[in-house]
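Now for one record.
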Amino acid sequence: MAVEVEIDVDVLKSEIKKTYASVSQEPEKAFVFPTGRPWAEDLGYPDELANVPESAVESFAGVANPFTLGRLNPGERVLDLGSGAGTDSLVAAQMVGEAGRVTGIDMTPEMLAKARAAAAELGAANVEFVEGEAESLPFPDGHFDVVISNGVIDLIPDKDAVFAELNRVLAAGGRLQIADVTIQNPVSEEGRRNIDLWTG
């Protein structure tokens, strides 16, 4: 018989914000997940990574490389779901060029501040960063050609709501380029109660 373990979503979001605020403010700290430029390079990031300011890449905490699913095209409108310190957004901004537009959305104010500063340092006028949550995106229907995301959806309990929102904001024929963590076996009841496993 399966036992459902309820997670207090407000507590979870608070703990996630604390964890990623720490990644933003203390990038040299050891976390339960890899971070930084060497990690992004190990993941095979495209050449555009070299231009992304260290202030952003030092707080990179992705799980894989969404650009292995394909390069973005000049002029595309891109949403970076869970943009963090802005590494993926700033790579994307270089790919889509001046005719394109990248919008990063994140719920962690410290990460957003870091991303905005890095965009200014890079001189990327085609990117913006918005505070918000994946389950309720503040964008009109069909607004984006591509959604990229890196290690974020696994942190959100209501995945149906996330994918419904992504479907809503994608234009007809749009695509998802998601790098994330999945599990192959059920998580134990004890594991489902461990907030640290949910936040990292």
